[in-house]
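New here. Your pick:
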Amino acid sequence: MADQQKKLSLVQAQLGPMANFVYLIADPVTHKAAVVDPAWDIKRIIDYAQAKGYDLEKILITHYHQDHLGGNMMGQNIQGAAEMVGHVKAKVYVNKNEAEGVKKVSGLSESDLVKVEAGDVFNVGGLEVKFIHTPGHTPGSQCFLVEGNLISGDTLFVNSCGRVDLPGSDPEQMYYSLNHTLRNLDDSTVVYPGHAYAPESSTTIGEQKLHNMYMRFKDLDDFLMAMGYSK
């Protein structure tokens, strides 16, 4: 696990056979922490947090796919948020459009969830975490912005973006999420993706505006054509 200390502690860990990134967001003063997309090895995540003295109080979910949330996938039962709430007193924060999918996939109950909308802000200790709704990969895909850092799930990768050919995906929504919502963030915003699909484990919005073809389309029709769709 790699730890980067700024005004916060941001920990990035690659877990599981699908090159998933799991993140811990922690306030180094209060030691309050949130975990993003816990899956594959819940014990390791909890043990690391406890060793650092972090109090895990929130579980943040970018989207409902099993490799980020846990659940049954192709006959394999992947550990995830449901196992974590059995060990720590934490609520699971999901976009309101993703709530039913989260419950169906993970086995979490309605009482486990906190449903959020675009622009909602929650505190992790003294840190403010902003929820940014970025549909396209799934209807309720969301990113988390904290202290100039964006945890982007499967919306934005280093020089790529999430798939739009899966159930619930929408290439038109992905276009607006990438080329309007995320493109309008400060160029200095550091991006931490949901998978280790590139040699670099992070990037910036400015770098992606220059080098990521999916963030360089000014026209929806051109984007859809590049993705293999027509409007």
